[in-house]
Design a protein that fits this description.
The chain is α/β, with parallel strands linked by helices and about 280 residues long. The protein has helices spanning about 10-20, 35-50, 75-85, 95-100, 120, 125-140, 155-165, 195-200, 205-215, 220-235, and strands at about 5, 25-30, 50-55, 90-95, 145-150, 170-175, 240-245, 260-270, 270-280. The protein has a six-stranded parallel β-sheet with strand order 1-4-3-2-5-6, with helices on both faces. Strands 7-8-9 form a three-stranded antiparallel β-sheet, with helices on one face.
C-alpha cells in the first residue's frame, strides 16, 4: 500500500475514513520525528497489532520548557518519510503547530499526580503538554491501538491513565526499549553527545543493572543501593536528577522490592539529558 502523507486534519481523516470503509484496523505511532531504529521497532510492533500503521510526526512545543531544546530539536522529515515508507507505513500525519493549536486554543489536558513526579519535578508542565497533544492525536485518528516505547516509561504510564480516565477507546501498547549494542537506549537526543560523551553514556544502563542486582540480592537496603548508583554515575561524570525505584503501574514510591517495579533514572552528560529505565520482577 502506497504511503500517504497528510499535513492537514481533513485529508488525514479522509484517508482514515477510506481505510475504515475497507474494514481495516489502524495502529497509531506518535513521534516527534528524527526517527531511528527504536521508532522503526515501534512500527514493526504496530504492524503486528493492526492492519495498517499510521505515524504522526510533530515536534510539540507544549512539552518543551523555555530553556529546553525546541528550536534545535532535530528535524529530518524527508529522511523520516523514506524510513517509514520502507517500513511499510500506510499513513503519515505531519500537522503544523497552527493545525493542532489554532488561534484561541486554550484547553490543556492535565496529566494529574502521575505526571507531577520524577520527570514532572524537573520539567514543569511537560506531561500536560504530552497529555494534550496525545489526546488530540488519538481523537483525530481514533485508532484501535497506539504504540509507545517503554524508554519513556513515565510517559507511557501517563498516557495509559489518560486513556482510562477519559474513556478513549484505544488500547495502549508499550514496546520494549531498543538499545545500541553497548546498552545505550536509542534516542534522538543521543545525536547531541560528543564522541567522548557517547563512550560514557552506556554507563547509565550499566548502573541501572548494577542497582537492580543490589536490590534483588537484598545485601544492601534500597536507599543504599540507590546511593551507590548515584555515586557511580557521578564518578563517570553524570549530573543525576533522579534515580528512583517505583511501582510498575502507578509509579508510586517503593520501600521494598515486594511487587513488580521500575528503576528509573535521569541524568545529564554535558548539556545532554538522558533518561532510561528497567523493569525489576519479583521472584
Amino acid at each position: 500500500m502506497q504511503l500517504t502523507v497528510s499535513q492537514d486534519m481533513e485529508s488525514f481523516q479522509e484517508a482514515l475514513g477510506e481505510l475504515a470503509m475497507d474494514g481495516k484496523t489502524v495502529a497509531l505511532v506518535p513521534t516527534m520525528g528524527a526517527l531511528h531504529a527504536g521508532h522503526i521497532a515501534l512500527v514493526k510492533e504496530a504492524k503486528e497489532l493492526a492492519d495498517v500503521v499510521a505515524v504522526s510526526i510533530f515536534v510539540n512545543p507544549k512539552q518543551f520548557g523555555p530553556n529546553e531544546d525546541f528550536l534545535r530539536y532535530p528535524r529530518t522529515l524527508e529522511r523520516d518519510l523514506q524510513l517509514l515508507d520502507e517500513a511499510g507505513v500506510t499513513l503519515v500525519y505531519t500537522p503544523t503547530v497552527e493545525d493542532l493549536y489554532p488561534e484561541g486554543f486554550s484547553t490543556i489536558v492535565s496529566a494529574g499526580p502521575i505526571g507531577a513526579m520524577l520527570e514532572g519535578t524537573f520539567r514543569t508542565g511537560f506531561f500536560d503538554g504530552v497529555a494534550t497533544v496525545v489526546t488530540k492525536l488519538l481523537l483525530r485518528t481514533l485508532p484501535q491501538v497506539a504504540v509507545f516505547g517503554e524508554k519513556d516509561y513515565q510517559q507511557l504510564c501517563v498516557i495509559r491513565r489518560i486513556v482510562r480516565d477519559l474513556d478513549i477507546a484505544v488500547e495502549i501498547f508499550g514496546a520494549e526499549t531498543v538499545r545500541e549494542s553497548d546498552g545505550l537506549a536509542l534516542s534522538s537526543r543521543n545525536a547531541y553527545l560528543s564522541a567522548q560523551q557517547r563512550s560514557i553514556a552506556p554507563k547509565l544502563f550499566e548502573t541501572l543493572e548494577a542497582v537492580a542486582d543490589d536490590l534483588i540480592s537484598e545485601e544492601v537496603s534500597k536507599d543504599e543501593a540507590l546511593a551507590k548508583g548515584i555515586d557511580r554515575l557521578t564518578e563517570f561524570g553524570f549530573r543525576v536528577d533522579y534515580l528512583e525505584l517505583r511501582k510498575e503501574d502507578t509509579l508510586e514510591a517503593l520501600e521494598t522490592l515486594d511487587t513488580e517495579a521500575r528503576l528509573l533514572v535521569a541524568a545529564w552528560l554535558g548539556n545532554t539529558r538522558l533518561i532510561d529505565n528497567i523493569g525489576i520482577g519479583v521472584e
